[in-house]
Design a protein that fits this description.
mainly alpha, about 0% strand, elongated
Length: about 120
């Protein structure tokens, strides 16, 4: 439960960062929605909605929360690895998503093993 709540806080932080981009609060080039290229507009709107939604689901310890977070992570990984000429190269974000995915799978495997050991 604590791991999912940490990931929920992490997701909420990403969601807030995307909302900051949407409302143009941060001064910088391409940080206002009306100045962004179409690809950034689509990605920012999508992730600004999905990351907080994932954070709520993860905080409530629901399965859909993890699924929505996984979708967000895959979208960002595809953005930064698959299309670096459009979105840039943010390897730290990609590595952090990959590390969280691996930890999640490891925790799920350990929980599965514990349940099968108890059942026998």
């Amino acid at each position: 439960a604590w791991f999912l709540r940490i990931v929920a806080a992490y997701s909420l932080m990403f969601g807030i960062l995307y909302w900051i981009r949407l409302i143009g609060f941060y001064p910088g080039s391409l940080w206002r929605f009306d100045l962004m290229p179409l690809q950034w507009q689509a990605a920012t709107v999508t992730l600004a909605v999905l990351f907080p939604f994932a954070a709520i689901g993860l905080w409530m310890l629901t399965a859909w929360g993890a699924a929505v977070w996984f979708l967000c992570a895959v979208i960002e990984m595809v953005m930064y690895v698959g299309m670096p000429e459009i979105f840039g190269n943010r390897q730290l974000i990609v590595l952090s998503h990959a590390a969280v995915m691996l930890l999640y799978v490891a925790f799920r495997f350990v929980i599965y093993r514990q349940h099968t050991a108890v059942a026998q």
